[in-house]
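Take a careful look at the sequence and tokenised backbone pasted below. I need to know what the token row says about the fold.
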Amino acid sequence: MNANPRQITLLKMVQEQGSVTVEQLAEQLGVTLQTVRRDVQRLAESGQLTRFHGGVRVPSSTTENIGHQQRVNLHSQEKTRIARSVAAEVPNDCSLILNIGTTTEAIARALLRHTGLRVITNNLNVASILSANPHSEVIVVGGVVRGRDQGIVGEAAVDFIRQFKVDIALIGISGIESDGSLRDYDYREVKVSQTILSHAREVWLAADQSKFNRPAMVQVGTISQIDRLFTDALPPAPFAALFEDAQVQVHIAE
């Protein structure tokens, strides 16, 4: 397509940020929501952008996630709100597993004032954050450290987690598809996440709205394995009905 200067600017903004809401684009471009929606529609039809409920992102790869630092910055305010919502529900004196992801790192920061936690994690960033809490204990999973995001993966990590049965698994995910599947990119990470799901009495999923309808190559599990969902907006169709049918308790972060 022959994009006009505004559409070229919009495209660059999304490419730099990875994912942006329609409201943010309208505000930053100084135009109406209707104008942004028309531009987004044209760019999506040409394959240069992918739309999701309430926003737009760069076209998704099913085989590789975006960089860790980019994910840290992406929807950071929403992740902080979700993390506070999760922390408000976590009791003191319980055992947890936190997996790899920038959302679980935000949750770790929100748990710094808890006491009596015993936290198992395959995320060195989570371990570093929570080690600053003198009133809780952190146990780091053994295995291969993935340099790009400090995640620990591989069979050794799977074997380590199998020793435990924790009260709550707090997990993030790369994508939730409309068939109810939870998906991620690295099959080695997925093997660890699958083990986490089966070694927790409750599973709490933390995912901002951009994760809905986001494709990824490897299936971690299904929403039927989740007890609670923590997100920043009402899930779009058909997800609200899927969570209701699966009897998942949905928490919308204020």
Remarks:
- The CA atoms of residues 22 and 55 lie 5 Å apart.
- The first helix runs from residue 5 to 17.
